[in-house]
Amino acid sequence: MEKVIGNAKLSLMQGDITQQDSDAIVNAANSGLMGGGGVDGAIHRAGGPVIKEECKKIVAEHGRLAAGQAVISTGGNLKARHVIHTVGPVWHGGAKGEPETLASAYRESLKVAAENGLRTVSFPSISTGVYGYPIDKAAEVALRIVVDFLTQETSLKEITFVLFDSRTFEAYSRVMEEL
Ligand code: ADP
Question: Which atom of ligand 1 lies at the shortest distance from residue 87's CA?
């Protein structure tokens, strides 16, 4: 499923983000940047220890990554050249700024990509695993922020959401149809 927005293409697919051959894949990391479960663990396993080494340096220099922020590292052994690590919000019912923090996680990731002159970026569904953000609500935020960003002048040419399971893929597809 895809849409053209400005000079860029936005698409959705079901699959494993670690297999993506894009300039960067985005990692739904945690603040310590030391890997974990879910997509974070999968990216570190597939990319090898060099990613963790770089993350360690980033945290030593700048401290832990607050929710809504993003940083870039090498892609290590991945097909993707870079990993953009961002931290989404933990869902606490929706009145604790979760939508704003999730929007910021997407926006800051896109900003880091554009600042590095990247053209193709793949996103997972941030916060909808262990962090418990309801998928339909998360899909609305994710797609709205990406569409807003692509309507600006940017180096980005292709944004792909790589959604792991069919339930997540279908939720994002419904929101995309309404855009
Ligand atoms: P969070 O802590 O931000 O909720 P999770 O990794 O627990 O992050 O889940 C985020 C989403 O990533 C979930 O939809 C999960 O199914 C998905 N996911 C897990 N592994 C992969 C993978 N290899 N590629 C793409 N998405 C993945």
Answer: 3
Closest-CA residue, ligand 1 atom 7, reads: 129
Where are the chain's structural domains? 2-178
DSSP 4: E
- Could you read off the pLDDT of 53-94 as tens digits, one per residue? 999 999 999 999 999 999 999 999 999 999 999 999 999 999
Residues having CB within 6 Å of any atom of ligand 1: 16-18, 28, 38-40, 42, 88, 124-131, 162, 164-165, 168
Question: ∠ at Cα 32 (70, 84), nearest 5°?
Answer: 25
End-to-end CA distance of the chain: 12
Query: Which superfamily is assigned to 2-178 in CATH?
Result: Leucine Aminopeptidase, subunit E, domain 1 (3.40.220.10)
CA distance 158 to 86: 19
Look up the pTM and report it.
0.98
Find the 132 Cα to ligand 1 centroid distance in Å.
11
pLDDT at site 160: 98
- Is 90 exceeded by the pLDDT of residue 120? yes
